[in-house]
Amino acid sequence: MDIRRLEAFRKVYELGSFSKAGQELFLSQPTISAHVLSLEQELGTQLFDRLGRTILPTQAGEILYRHVLGVFAALESATAEISLLQQRVAGEITIGGSTIPATYLLPQRLAEFTRRYPEVKVRLTVGDSQDIISAVQDGRLSLGVVGATVNDPDLVFSRLLDDELVIVASRKLPGIASMLDSGGLIIPPDQLQAWPWVLREQGSGTRKALESALAAIGRDIRMLNPAIEARSHEAVVQCALHGLGLCVTSRLAVGTCLSKGDLVPVEVPGLRMQRAFQIVWHAKRHIFPAMRFFIEFLKNPQE
Predict the structure, then answer these.
(1) Pairing between strand 91-97 and 143-146?
(2) For residue range 186-227, what is the model confidence (pLDDT) as tens digits?
(3) Which residues are CB-neighbours of 15 under 8 A, at least 6 positions away?
(4) What is the CATH number of the domain that holds 27?
């Protein structure tokens, strides 16, 4: 099979569009269509269903895509290993980060890594922890940095650093200012449901950590009164800053807001929320040199 046709097929599958695939590969849409048609003729089956403007892979397309990922991973690995023989670290790494590490941890590490190894091309995807873990499971990402783990024998999780989660609130939230004036922000566990909350969505590492911490003191997250549920950390913090409710977030992410007094910490007796950010990769995928160097760099950035 022609590698150019496989690359065209891969991009159409991932982007769901012949025109977007052409833009990505700097080819015309008719050229992309011709590559895919040639593959279909070679295989004797249809790879995509064309439903108006919607492109959906057929069962044959799903099967081919899984194998195409392996083909391109093997080619990238070969290229990287050959480069290493020439004392070069090169290649492409597709990295996923859940919201907090992708915003507050990875940018600095990536900047230093790419300065050291300028021939490594990095693609960064942001999502919640479950999204990133799923993308590593099915081969769409080389590795991820997430705030949660799952039980899967095909995945390797390696602890990167510890993270403290805190409950914070704005003075704009009704009741907060008066509590501060009377001595401090201490909310007993049996009064948590009396306050409005700004919560992360299902699947986020932050929400899972809150669920576990509440369960440890005999409480259920479903008892909380959510004023709003948001998919990104930035949205959660902004909602909290405008007084919509209490929120749980990483101290790493709101250090500046706390030091300025824009947000204040809330203490809940007995509630402790510690988690770790984890590097995750697929145990059965080959770790080519650029990825191996990056994992080691994440763990030991000063070396």
Answers:
(1) parallel
(2) 999 999 999 999 998 887 888 888 999 999 999 999 999 999
(3) 21, 24
(4) 1.10.10.10
